[in-house]
Design a protein that fits this description.
CATH topology: Rhopdopsin 7-helix transmembrane proteins
Order of helices and strands: HEEHHHHHHEEEHHHHHHEEE
CATH superfamily: Rhodopsin 7-helix transmembrane proteins
Number of helices: 13
Radius of gyration: 24 Å
Helix content: 55-70%
CATH class: Mainly Alpha
Distance between the termini: 28 Å
Strand content: 5-15%
Strand order of the largest sheet: 2-1-5
Low-confidence stretches: 6-26, 355-362, 377-383
Largest sheet: 3 strands, mixed
Length: 383
């Protein structure tokens, strides 16, 4: 509940900041001069100098870096090193963690950019890389979460099916997702994202769109418009539908086995997982993808007052998925929970295996809530 309240406050802060920063005038649209510099509206100048872009947004990226780097790094290490028996869910999760990690390692550049007054000093190529990894992470996360949702349903609904343990299918799906995302992020490298402004004297990265002809703005934003319309309507919306259908079928499958106490526990865990995924989408993916479509739809018509402050706030919140995804691993995989606990307690894999064998040879006493060996010796089941 505390995390939900915190996220609600963050959303409210973003909305208030966006309203205060947007004002009247054209959004982040620049018009080139003969000198090569770009002139922007005073509203754009105010937002670029506001606390929203120079304080709040970089602080959010610091949180993403501080939490996302160790959490996803540990997840990859647990899945690759500590988990001996690989299964499709772990394959999807390690790829999801890798996608998050590949984005998180670039966030220091984003932090420095905003703290430096939204002045990009690292050149056009690095700006393209940062933008590419940002959107690549977003759509990779959506697709891998969809795969996890389908896999979770299939394991519960078809527990005796051999297909649920087919790692080759999972590996093939992951390779296809990486290839697809790599291919679909290619258009982001085909046009410039950095813009040198006249006032303030800064270079922005993926913030200002240059409109060469004010009477006909569409050709100037044609490529990003078609790109984000396609990604929002296909790469985001279709996996969303798949996730909703998978979880509805999952709850229905668990509902048929409510007499079983184990099924009741699985149902509770599934509900928590669904809430976690739902929170991730409500905070990270749904607002950002809606605003991407709205933003570029308005840009192509040169519409006045396009709410850019709220738009960049939703993109900032989209990066929080790198912090939420480890909670998805926690609720999906029991092995992940155990391995993380043992890793934090500095237990080696050999020690854990000896403990498992030792406990399996003992009888559990409900009265003492401990394991009792045949000789009468008692050992606690707590770690």
């Amino acid at each position: 509940m505390d995390s939900t309240r915190l996220l609600s406050l963050l959303l409210i802060f973003c909305c208030v900041s966006a309203v205060n920063a947007t004002g009247k005038g054209r959004g982040f649209i620049g018009y080139p001069e003969d000198s090569g510099l770009v002139v922007v509206h005073q509203t754009t100048v105010d937002i670029l100098k506001s606390n929203l872009t120079t304080v709040f947004i970089p602080i959010m990226y610091i949180i993403v870096f501080v939490i996302g780097l160790p959490a996803n790094g540990m997840a990859i290490w647990v899945f690759l090193v500590r988990t001996k028996k690989k299964h499709p869910s772990s394959i999807y999760m390690v790829n999801l963690a890798l996608a998050d990690l590949l984005f998180v390692i670039w966030t220091p550049l984003k932090i420095a950019y905003h703290f430096n007054g939204n002045d990009w000093t690292y050149g056009e190529p690095l700006c393209k890389v940062l933008v590419g990894f940002f959107y690549g992470n977003m759509y990779c996360s959506v697709l891998f979460i969809a795969c996890l949702s389908v896999q979770r349903y299939w394991v519960v609904a078809h527990p005796l099916s051999q297909q649920r343990k087919n790692n080759k299918v999972a590996v093939g799906v992951c390779v296809a997702i990486w290839a697809f995302v790599w291919l679909t992020t290619t258009p982001l490298y085909l046009y410039d994202h950095t813009v040198r402004l006249k006032d303030p004297n800064i270079t922005t990265c993926h913030d200002v769109n240059v409109i060469k002809d004010i009477q006909n703005p569409f050709p100037s934003v044609q490529l990003p418009y078609y790109y984000f319309i396609f990604m929002g309507m296909v790469v985001f919306l279709v996996p969303c539908v798949i996730i909703v259908v998978a979880y509805v079928l999952l709850l229905r499958a668990l509902g048929h086995n409510m007499d079983d106490s184990a099924a009741g526990k699985n149902r509770h865990r599934a509900v928590v997982l669904i809430v976690t995924v739902l929170m991730t989408f409500l905070v990270c993916f749904i607002p950002s993808n809606i605003m991407l479509v709205v933003h570029y739809s308005l840009l192509k018509d040169g519409v006045i007052n396009n709410g850019y402050g709220f738009y960049i706030s939703t993109l900032c919140l989209a990066s929080l998925n790198s912090c939420f995804d480890p909670f998805i691993y926690y609720f999906v995989s029991e092995d992940f929970r155990d391995h993380v606990k043992n890793t934090l307690l500095c237990r080696s894999s050999r020690t854990v295996e000896r403990m498992r064998v030792s406990f399996s040879s003992m009888k559990y006493s409900r009265k003492s809530k401990s394991y009792v060996s045949d000789s009468g010796n008692t050992q606690s089941s707590s770690c």
